[in-house]
Amino acid sequence: MSIEIIPQYFYNFSVKKIFLKILFFLCFSSYSFACPLLQVPIGTPVSSAVQTFEFLDMYDPEVYGTDVVPRFQKFAIDYCEGSSLENADMEVMVYDSKVAGIKLISTDPEFKNEIYEFTKTFIGDPGEEAKNDNWTGFKNLSIGALQIFYSKVIIMDEIVEVLEITNSEMADFISGEEVIDVLG
């Protein structure tokens, strides 16, 4: 009875193949791949962002130009399945045919800290004090030119949670009189 020895190149090929499968699985099973709203960089042209945010196909640069910033509002959970955003809204602002900012907003007092949990899981920990029911203020979680602010504010005696994502180039265009809501 003879025992055949597996050629070394076959063994190396199998190990590499298994390693690549494990790496592929780890990369594509991470949270960020389940949350497309975080995969659209601020400053992305609308023509590219429409692949994730299909509602941006309503954007017409001839209508808005650079004098008006349209704000599109959708349910956040539709763009981040499996997250804590079941009751949050997402706003996407567009300036000069580019994504200028993304905001997540939670106003329902029965669902506390859903944006806090999302922020802690997907972006960074705003700290335990920000989780307290009576805390108001903001936490700066910015990275380089990417401006990320988690906040809780009181509006009409209710706590409202907000996560705002923009960059230093677009920050001036995501709020003010030139921002209008787009229905659709």
Q: What is the oligomer described by this structure?
A: single chain
Shape: globular
Strand content: 25-35%
Query: How much helical structure, as a percent, in the residues?
Result: 10-25%
How many DSSP H or I helices? 4
> C-alpha Rg, in Å?
22 Å
Distance between the termini: 75 Å
Q: Structural class per helix/strand content?
A: alpha+beta
The number of distinct β-strands equals 7
H/E topology pattern: HHHEEEHEEEE
Low-confidence stretches: 13-33
How many structural domains does the protein architecture include?
1
Mean pLDDT: 85
Q: Provide the spatial order of strands within the biggest beta sheet.
A: 4-5-6-3-2-1-7
Largest sheet, in brief, is:
7 strands, mixed
Overview of this protein structure:
The protein is globular. It is built from four helices and seven strands, in the order αααβββαββββ. Residues 13-33 have low confidence and may be disordered. The protein has 184 residues and is α+β, with helices and mostly antiparallel strands. It has helices at residues 8-28, 46-49, 61-64, 114-122; strands at 69-75, 89-95, 98-106, 137-140, 146-155, 158-167, 179-182. It has one domain. A seven-stranded mixed sheet has the order 4-5-6-3-2-1-7.
